[in-house]
TrEMBL record:
Residue ranges of domain HTH cro/C1-type in the record: 36-85
InterPro entries in the record: Cro/C1-type_HTH, Lambda_DNA-bd_dom_sf, MLTR_LBD
Protein name: Helix-turn-helix transcriptional regulator
Any matching Pfam family: HTH_31
Top-level taxonomic group: Bacteria
Amino acid sequence: MASPGIELGAALRAWRERVTPVEAGLPSGGDRRVPGLRREELALLVGISVDYLIRLEQGRATNPSPQVLGALARALRLGSGERELLYRLAGAVPPPSGSVPRGVPRGVQLMIDRMSDTPLTVFTAAWDTVQWNPLWAELLGDPAALDARARNLIWRYFATEQVSGSRVERDAAQADAFEREMVADLRRAADRYPDDRAVAELAAALREVNPRFAELWSRYEAAPNSPSRKTVVHPELGPITLDCDVLTIDGSDLRIVLYSAEPGTRDAELLDELRARATTGGRRLAATT
């Protein structure tokens, strides 16, 4: 297995060779033997010596400073996923940045638009509702009827549903697992986006209103999301047991939650009935504003 230094060097060379001088704001320089930036050009953009860049690319220099890594990421025009990879290969922790993303990439939007026959919603990394389709609204209730704060799944669960109830039926073990996952996810969002005041305020408000949330928050647990089966108690059709999957979109930290039923079951028939209702309603994918 290649050493971390060798892996970092190979990545730097690959990224350098794909960036053109024009993209980097430099003159093209006429005929070039290799595509992309020369070492001298990248070193100039980053503010390091050519010798140091050569040692980085050859795996002979280790532990570049956060300042150098940040300058390399900017000069090489790395996306968020590549930026995180750069830091990991250098043995460093990627610095947090900005606010929790809410925008849905075009390719992801096209994908979810084609999934109208599946109850589906899009959440941010902090579990704010971004979009939902008509079938989701039929199954779990229309988020449009909720105020802005209640459209956050974690707030709704810990601050309102434990009083008013939820359509999702959970036994004690399922509730414990769900609560731990949600609190761990919100802590990750708070750690990753420390400049997002809304996330910090949400966590603070939940610690005030719910002792269970406050207790879980103090544990600093990491609880990964996992596929599960959930029973949704529809007000007219009764219990519907469905598989629940969570897809995470790299680079945007969005989560797509979708439900599905085992073919040939009574649950699948009930989901078909909800599809008919959603289609009759003629509603398109909704989005928060």
